[in-house]
């Protein structure tokens, strides 16, 4: 006749601990794997500007002075977007003048645009001007019943010689913080 | 001193599992037919409530069969319901937030085949299978009521259906309701898959308790369940997605249901055969 073990053996305890360790290990490796997937990038180069852009994102057709416009279609709601712009300036133009011009443009093109704050910063050794703002994006398809998204945006303006390079980061309010590290990697790779 | 008593063999468990699979397919067919014939119009709140009702049905079907069949060889009902609730609670409190908010799998998991499989195993598979294991291990496992190898399958299935119910409710709530036809298929697929993979963990737990298994036995069980979980999710995505053409993507959720039913049948059959073989070889050795 078979027997039933009613007590917890040392083997049971070790097996239990091993399961926990195995799960924690799997989740740690899973985190590293997730990071490596999210940080996959392709070499982007155009108009004397190069960067490591996220791979797998949708490359939209550039308009005006844009040299790159990529969007993460897997984002929930508004797709997280990076835009690179190259604006010709005179040699005596400073960053705050470019900021004024960009603010006026955003005010015309973006719904409910508001500047939250702006200040000078150093981005990976490069002097720049940072502008944080917010706007509302709604689906242009009137038949699509969804609430408009509140989008947070950040522009980094780098003025060098006769050009201003603007690196823009847009993300839905709820995704902004979590997607920010990925944008910092993109900024770090930016060369012009 | 360890006490001794015979290990009974419950035959109705096999019928419960089989009836769960068949009933879910019938249930899906009925809801799909009603949706097609009447095309009911819902308000947002009634759609949400209907979706939540549909999410609970798979677990309710299994519990009804289990209660009816278990009269001759009774398992304490409150323990089965308790483990079901614990599985649901762990899913809602840890599993869903960890997978959706911390790992944000929807952002990266479906990038390519390797990522879908590896991420599905390491993150989704291990999280789900460990939590279902924990729901049994830290509740009923050391109780005297867990007194035969088959109990591992019963309680793990209850935990898996609890987990599946929360996954389905979360799907309904996050989408503000579901399309009845495709929604009910998805819910049946999730319930069948979770119940099947729980069966693997349950089998390993049952043997771990009643036979002196090596230290790697239980980790092997969780790993097998997690691998099956990850592979199934990838395969389901492949068969459901169908083909892409210039006219758009073709999606066939019925193939997903067929795959889930096949996997559930196959896994359940193998697990139950292994349990019976284990019991018989133990009894023959005496």
Topology:
The complex is a heterodimer of chains A (192) and B (286).
Chain A: H1 10-38, E1 41-46, E2 49-54, E3 58-59, E4 66-71, E5 81-88, H2 95-109, E6 111-123, E7 126-137, E8 149-160, E9 163-172, H3 176-189
Antiparallel strand pairs in A: 1-2, 3-4, 4-5, 5-9, 6-7, 7-8, 8-9
Chain B: H1 12-38, H2 44-69, H3 77-102, H4 113-137, H5 149-174, H6 180-210, H7 217-241, E1 244-245, E2 248-249, H8 253-284
Antiparallel strand pairs in B: 1-2
Helix pairs in contact in B: 1-2, 1-6, 1-8, 2-5, 2-6, 3-4, 3-5, 4-5, 4-6, 4-7, 5-6, 6-7, 6-8, 7-8
Residues in β-strands, percent of chain A: 35-45%
- Count the strands of chain B? 2
Radius of gyration of chain B, in angstroms, nearest whole number? 19 Å
Q: Which spans of chain B have pLDDT < 50 for at least 5 consecutive residues? A: none
- Through-space gap between termini of chain A: 80 Å
| Tally of distinct domains of chain A | 2
């Amino acid at each position: 006749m078979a027997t039933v073990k009613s007590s917890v053996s040392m083997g049971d305890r070790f097996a239990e601990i091993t399961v926990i360790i195995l799960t924690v290990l799997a989740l740690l490796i899973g985190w590293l794997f997730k990071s490596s997937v999210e940080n996959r990038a392709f070499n982007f180069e155009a108009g004397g500007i190069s960067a490591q852009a996220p791979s797998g994102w949708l490359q939209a057709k550039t308009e005006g002075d844009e040299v790159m416009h990529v969007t993460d279609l897997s984002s929930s709601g508004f797709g997280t977007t990076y835009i690179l712009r190259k604006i010709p300036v005179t040699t005596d133009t400073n960053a705050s003048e470019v900021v004024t011009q960009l603010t006026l443009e955003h005010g015309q093109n973006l719904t409910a645009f508001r500047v939250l704050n702006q200040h000078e910063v150093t981005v990976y050794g490069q002097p720049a001007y940072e502008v944080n703002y917010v706007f509302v994006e709604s689906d242009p398809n009137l038949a699509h019943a969804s609430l408009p998204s509140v989008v947070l945006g950040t522009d980094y303006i780098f003025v060098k010689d006769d050009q201003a390079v603007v690196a823009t980061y847009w993300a839905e309010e709820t995704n902004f913080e979590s997607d920010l590290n990925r944008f910092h990697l993109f900024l770090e790779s930016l060369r012009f | 001193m360890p006490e001794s008593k015979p290990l009974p063999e419950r035959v109705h468990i096999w019928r419960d599992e089989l009836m769960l699979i068949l009933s879910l397919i019938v249930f899906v067919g009925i809801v799909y037919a009603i949706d097609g014939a009447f095309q009911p119009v819902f308000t947002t709140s009634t759609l949400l409530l209907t979706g939540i009702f549909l999410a609970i049905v798979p677990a309710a079907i299994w519990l009804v069969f289990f209660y009816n069949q278990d009269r001759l060889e009774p398992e304490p009902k409150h323990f089965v319901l308790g483990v079901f609730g614990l599985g649901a609670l762990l899913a809602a409190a840890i599993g869903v937030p960890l997978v959706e908010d911390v790992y944000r799998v929807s952002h990266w998991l479906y990038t390519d085949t390797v990522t879908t499989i590896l991420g599905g195993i390491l993150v989704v598979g291990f999280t789900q299978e460990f939590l279902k294991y924990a729901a049994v291990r830290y509740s009923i496992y050391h109780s005297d009521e867990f007194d035969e190898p088959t109990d591992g399958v019963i309680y793990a299935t209850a935990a898996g259906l609890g987990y599946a119910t929360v996954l389905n409710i979360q799907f309904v709530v996050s989408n503000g309701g579901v399309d009845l036809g495709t929604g009910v298929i998805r819910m049946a697929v999730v319930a069948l898959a979770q119940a099947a993979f729980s069966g693997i963990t349950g089998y390993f737990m049952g043997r771990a308790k009643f036979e002196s298994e090596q230290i790697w036995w239980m980790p092997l069980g969780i790993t097998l369940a997690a691998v099956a979980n990850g592979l199934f999710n990838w395969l389901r995505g492949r068969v459901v997605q169908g083909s892409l053409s210039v006219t758009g993507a073709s999606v066939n959720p019925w193939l997903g249901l067929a795959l889930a039913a096949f996997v559930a049948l196959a896994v359940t059959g193998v697990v139950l055969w292994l349990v019976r073989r284990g019991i018989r070889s133990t009894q023959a050795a005496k």
